Amino acid sequence: MKFLRFIENNKIKTGYFDGEKVIELTDSMEEILKNWDNWKYMSKQVKMSYSLEDIQFAPPTTPSKIVCVGLNYKDHAEELNMELPYEPKIFLKPPNTVIPANATIGYPKMSNEVDYEAELAIVISKSGKNIEMEEAHEYIGGYTILNDVTARDLQRKDEQWTRAKSFDTFCPIGPFIETEMDPMNQAISLKLNGEIKQESNTSNMIFSPKELVEFISHIMTLNPGDIIATGTPAGVGEMNIGDEVEIAIEDIGYLKNKLL
User: Fold this and answer.
1) R_g (Cα) of the chain, nearest Å
2) In the chain, alpha helices (H)
3) Residues 198-207: what's their mean pLDDT?
4) Are residues 53 and 84 in the same domain?
5) Residue 164's domain is classified under what CATH number?
6) DSSP type of residue 44
7) Do 98 and 126 share a structural domain?
8) Dihedrals φ, ψ of 136, to 5°?
9) pLDDT greater than 80 at residue 158
10) Closest alpha carbon to 212 in 146, 144, 132, 150
11) Residue 99 and residue 68: Cα distance in Å, rounded?
12) Same domain, 71 and 199
């Protein structure tokens, strides 16, 4: 199912998209994802329904952290002429970077080169530490779309990536959390002003979502709502002020944002 958080009448609400309309639910996103196996068989407590045009998207989750994985697609490694990593290369984006679908990405004054990176993102459903790969599915509530916006000139300049990845608005996510999909067989693409720039499949990932949950949870505790961005495929490039970027993942949908 495609769950979402949205703003209606100045209130953040939770619901799911049935393909035609948004159905408002009484349960919070945290309750739904934590108890998904039980919830999907229960009678849903429905309040109201809306068309997508009637609502404003909110970020589908409020993460305490966004853990990102660099160089996790074989085609991206080949594009950069780099060897495949033997373990995941991770870094963090802070929560202040998160914005929803259709929100505006801000171009920072101290940068002259801002790039897009289309990514599949894991949404964590419950707290976990030292999770083994065989049980990782118990901690994955679903998947969403993420744009790992990067000030590439600052990334090259700094010895580490914090500044380049951490500007406000540099992590668009959403609009939906898909709870039932195969994360290792999803077409993923990105259009810039309608022109295809990235086009791949998640089957090209080097480390699977379950492997990433295991690896990261042995370093830090994962909390409900946390995001793991699984890396970007080949074709990363620059955005300019006024550009519209649209990321598509087969079973989730589209994430659109504009750079201003």
Assistant:
1) 18
2) 29-34, 36-39, 74-79, 152-157, 162-165, 209-217
3) 96
4) no
5) 3.90.850.10
6) P
7) yes
8) -60, -35
9) yes
10) 132
11) 16
12) yes
Number of domains within the chain: 2
In angstroms, rounded to a whole number, what is the distance separating the alpha carbons of residues 25 and 217?
Answer: 31
119: tokens are 């990514």
Residues spanned by the domain of 253: 66-259
Average pLDDT of the chain? 94
Same domain, 149 and 77: yes
- Global model pTM greater than 0.90: yes
Q: What φ, ψ does residue 159 adopt, rounded to 5°?
A: -80, -15
Element (H, E) at 238: strand 237-239
Furthest-apart CA pair in the chain: how many Å?
Answer: 54
pLDDT at 79: 80
Whether residues 76 and 171 fall in one domain? yes
Q: How far apart are CA 204 and CA 30, in angstroms?
A: 30
Q: Are residues 35 and 86 in the same domain?
A: no
Q: Is pLDDT above 90 for 17?
A: yes
For residue range 125-154, what is the model confidence (pLDDT) as tens digits? 999 999 999 999 999 999 999 999 999 999
Residue 40 has pLDDT above 80, yes or no: no
- Same domain for 73 and 130? yes
Query: Which residues contact residue 42 at a Cβ distance below 8 angstroms, ignoring those fewer than 6 apart?
Result: none
Query: Domain check: are 8 and 102 in the same one?
Result: no
CATH number at residue 47: 2.30.30
Yes or no: say if 29 and 60 are a contact pair by the CB < 8 Å rule. Answer: yes
Written as one letter, the residue type at 51 is S
pLDDT attached to residue 39: 67
- Average pLDDT, integer, range 216-238: 97
Domain endpoint, select from 11, 39, 58: 58
